[in-house]
Specification:
By secondary structure, the protein is mainly β. The chain is 7% helix and 42% strand. The N terminus is likely disordered.
Length: 578
């Protein structure tokens, strides 16, 4: 309890103004009675100590007061009430010594009251149309009981507990509720908005990423947020998300910006690269976050969140997956998966409905796939076995919708035309062939305009394999004007005799990588050869910008072959037998 202590010396029974830090000794000279002002909360016992600086045994003092009490030591005290607030109450203190000397002091009490103030909470507050939503109102106040009331809006409130019940009809969208708190002396009001919605109260969404305005390029990172798009007031979540790890390589997960801004105290993720069960995705990510943990005086702000987490994926370079939509879906293995916590952990929210697929094709949310009887593991939501009421225990609440998302990998021709490796908007020209040939000898640094766009344009023969010698051979065929629309596959046999390499089928180009720094003799006629040593291996490319082809003995080279790749005369990838 807060107390105010004022001291004075009654050597001459003269009192000065209240000083809270100690005793004020007064000189022994006659002065008129002085007024002492005490400002204090009405919830605290007000007291004042009069101190003597002489022997009270030889000269005893008798104390009197008209309000409150004062003991023989000179301590005056008074327990005020709420009715005393706002009224200046003068108190007369009289001291009489054995010589019948009377001295008087006046204490004026200025008693205060704290106005009850509402705790701020996040709004617009999401409520479900036609379904009562209960909200606990809270206020800061001093020692007085607080009484609650609803001034306006579709709600009722328990006047003593502050338990507010919002019951909004379906015919309103955004509406204001005004509530009041009073301690019978002062009152305050709080105004907030409710957003009335049909469907689930909580909605979690993984967006669909990848379109003409936001292309997802192969070999690049893509950030995928997990968002709470309604029902923002939560204090924890446990989410399980499945995806195809042959298309998307998971890198990391970070807490959403709202969790960081509001100082949520716990966030973690766990990557599960392989899943051994039927009907399971090839990989899973578990996300867990808690706003408040038992770790001392630091406390987060619970005022609503939207972005729960951000997933970082590396998109595959497999060109057969260009233009593909890669689903990212919520997945359930047991009852604890994909749940939300609110009201400091007293409420657990589970799936009411799960949506999958394109929202544009199946408005407004996609296809509903919730099936509570399918059984675990499942893509189809929390199972019915998790929703069995138990007497004396809170039942999970089915009021969360989950919207699955996806990543659509950009098509090569959406980034740039096939064959336009130099990105000059002219595909399949001689400059593209020269640039392509230089890539095979000098590496990816040759694509310095837009690396991903140039890689995408390199799949000239459209077989799903970018950056292949077959693509170079097919590009040369296009330039020569005799490219086939249907490219036949080719099987060939490669032989080697004393360093001389021989191929038994007609080829358009070949890339040979030899360990160490070596020289080679070109045996194929009407063909060009370029080579470069990269510090470890020598890379040799045999090709013809005129469209010539070769077979039989084509090169003499001594050294260990690290790799060899052919492109057929018509630009197909060649399966070679040694």
């Amino acid at each position: 309890m807060k107390q105010i202590r004022v001291t004075s010396t009654i050597a001459i029974f003269a009192l000065l103004l209240f000083i809270s830090c100690g005793v004020k000794k007064i000189t022994n000279s006659p002065v008129p009675p002085e007024t002492i002002t005490i400002t204090s909360s009405h919830c605290d016992v007000a007291f004042y100590d009069f101190d003597t600086d002489f022997d009270s045994l030889s000269n005893p003092i008798t104390w009197t007061t008209d309000i409150g009490t004062i003991d023989s030591s000179g301590r005056w005290s008074y327990a005020p009430t709420l009715a005393d607030v706002g009224v200046m109450i003068p108190v007369t203190i009289t001291a009489t010594d054995s010589l019948r000397n009377n001295f008087t002091a006046i204490i004026e009490m200025n008693l205060t009251n704290e106005v009850p103030l509402f705790y701020h909470f996040y709004h617009p507050f999401n409520v479900r149309a036609g379904v009562p939503t209960v909200v606990q109102l809270g206020v800061t106040d001093d020692c007085d009981p607080v009484y609650f009331s609803v001034v306006s809006g579709p709600a009722t409130v328990d006047s003593l507990s502050g338990l507010l019940t919002i019951d909004a009809p379906e015919n309103i969208d955004l509406q204001t509720i005004v509530v009041q708190a009073s301690d019978l002396k002062d009152s305050s009001r709080y105004e907030f908005e409710i957003l009335v919605q049909t469907g689930s109260l909580f909605k979690i969404e993984i967006p669909e990423i990848g379109d003409s305005n936001e292309q997802v390029l192969q070999g690049q990172h893509v950030k995928v947020p997990v968002n709470l798009i309604s029902g923002n007031m939560i204090d924890g979540y446990d989410l399980l998300i499945g995806f195809d790890n042959t298309a998307l390589s998971f890198q990391s997960a970070t807490p959403g910006t709202d969790l960081v801004d509001d100082d949520w105290e716990y966030f973690t993720y766990r990557y599960i690269p392989t899943v051994d069960c039927n009907n399971c995705p090839s990989a899973l990510i578990r996300l867990t976050a808690i706003a408040e943990t038992n770790n001392g005086p630091n406390h987060p702000i619970i005022d609503g969140v939207n972005e729960l987490a951000v997933l970082d994926f590396l998109v595959t370079n497999d060109r057969s997956l260009e233009c593909q939509e890669i689903p990212i879906r919520f997945f359930w293995v047991d009852c604890g998966d994909n749940t939300l916590s609110s009201e400091q952990g007293y409420e657990l929210h589970i799936s009411e409905v799960v949506f999958d697929g394109d929202e544009l094709m199946f408005p407004p949310n996609g296809i509903e796939i919730q099936d509570s009887l399918f059984g675990f593991p499942t893509y189809f939501g929390t199972q019915e076995e998790c929703y069995v009421p138990v007497v004396g225990k809170p039942t999970p609440i089915r009021d969360v919708s989950f919207n699955n998302g996806s990543v659509t990998i950009a098509c090569a021709d959406a980034i740039d035309s096939r064959g336009d490796l130099n990105l000059n908007f002219v595909a399949n020209e001689i400059a593209d062939a020269v640039l392509y040939a230089n890539y095979f000898i000098y590496g990816i640094g040759q694509f310095n305009i837009n690396t991903e766009g140039q890689i995408a344009a390199s799949d000239v023969n459209a077989d799903g394999l970018a950056l292949s010698v077959a693509d170079l051979a097919y590009l040369i065929r296009i330039i020569a004007g005799d490219a086939l629309s249907d490219i036949p596959s080719v099987d060939a046999t490669l032989t080697s005799s004393n360093g001389t390499l021989n191929i038994n089928a007609e080829m358009g180009a070949v890339l040979i990588v030899i360990n160490g720094e070596i020289t080679a003799d070109l045996l194929a006629t009407n063909m060009s050869m370029i080579s470069s040593f990269d510090g470890v291996n020598t890379r040799i490319l045999i090709y013809s910008l005129e469209g010539n082809i070769f077979s039989g003995d084509f090169i003499k080279v001594l050294g260990t072959i690290v790799s060899i790749e052919f492109g057929s005369a018509q630009g197909a990838t060649v399966s070679v037998q040694l």
